[in-house]
Amino acid sequence: MKSTSVVPAPTLRSAASQVPALQRGLALLELLAATPTGATLAELATTLHLSSATVFRLAGALEELGYLQREERTKRFSLTRKLLTLGQPHSGAKSLLECAIEPMRSILAATGETTQLVIPAGSECVLLEQLPSVHSFKYIVDLGSRVSVHCCAPGKAILAFASQDTLDQALAGLSFERFTPHSITSRADFLLELESVRACGYATDFGEHFEGIHCLAAPLLDQFGHAFASITIAGPSTRVPQTRFAEWGALIRECCQRAAQNFLT
């Protein structure tokens, strides 16, 4: 889920003085979002075609507001979790994370494996929060990481219970990339998988994104029965064997129902 490649920055108008400060700031945030390793002031200025003074002011303001952080040793800027919290669903005064954290702790206590809260983003899933495994060898990824819905349990759990419009939009953006020999690589096979998820109420991932990593996930459903998030566990196949899928799948499904009820009431 983590990549070190740098995606080109959004194109800005040639005359920097004509670009509103808000657009410059958003371009800076988008660049850092596509650069997991972060970037120095000089790198930001060069890529965005802005003066160092302008980038210094923008980065300083965003750092003061809590959207950026700068590593003292390398002087590289990176995003904080604040943007993630802005993007998560809210119900009145309650955030999704507030409503899901206790059910997630219950799952972690029962399984011992890394427990994650995931939200949809088109044909991808975004990791909003995670509770690391109790084991010394554990599966963890960076918060904010994205993965294609076709090769992960939470993506399947969400799309299996999505509205038809949401499903169609996600399918249109899928390339069905093969990450491991177990990845689903066709629309027809993926739709069959979603039928299985609907039948049992939870989704599985047999090393479809990372070889040797098994995942189980269930959806959080709104009042219309549509998924708006998912809770998943992930760990080595030796500790998350198929023989535990039914037991742990039912547990995760029950905890997701509790989290959704907390959120919707």
Number of domains: 2
**Number of H- or I-type helical stretches:** 9
Task: Compute the number of strand runs.
Answer: 10
Structural class by secondary-structure content: alpha+beta
- Major β-sheet strand ordering: 7-6-5-10-9-8
* Shape call: globular
Tell me what the CATH architecture of the largest domain is.
2-Layer Sandwich
Radius of gyration: 20 Å
What portion of the residues fall into strands of 2 or more residues? Answer: 15-25%
User: Sheet bearing the most strands, described?
Assistant: 6 strands, antiparallel
At CATH level 3, the topology of the largest domain is Beta-Lactamase
Helix content: 40-55%
Structural write-up:
The protein is α+β, with helices and mostly antiparallel strands. It folds into two domains: 16-80, Winged helix-like DNA-binding domain superfamily/Winged helix DNA-binding domain (Arc Repressor Mutant, subunit A, Orthogonal Bundle); 86-264, 2-Layer Sandwich (Beta-Lactamase), CATH 3.30.450. The protein is 40% helix and 20% strand. The protein is built from nine helices and ten strands. It has helices at residues 21-33, 41-48, 52-64, 82-87, 96-111, 153-160, 164-172, 187-200, 245-264; strands at 68-70, 77-79, 90-91, 94-95, 114-121, 124-131, 146-148, 203-206, 213-221, 227-236. A six-stranded antiparallel beta sheet has the order 7-6-5-10-9-8, sandwiched between helices. A two-stranded antiparallel ribbon has the order 1-2. Strand 9 and strand 10 (227-236) form a beta hairpin. Helix 2 (41-48) packs across helix 3 (52-64). The two termini are 33 Å apart. The model is unreliable at 1-7 and 11-18 (pLDDT under 50).
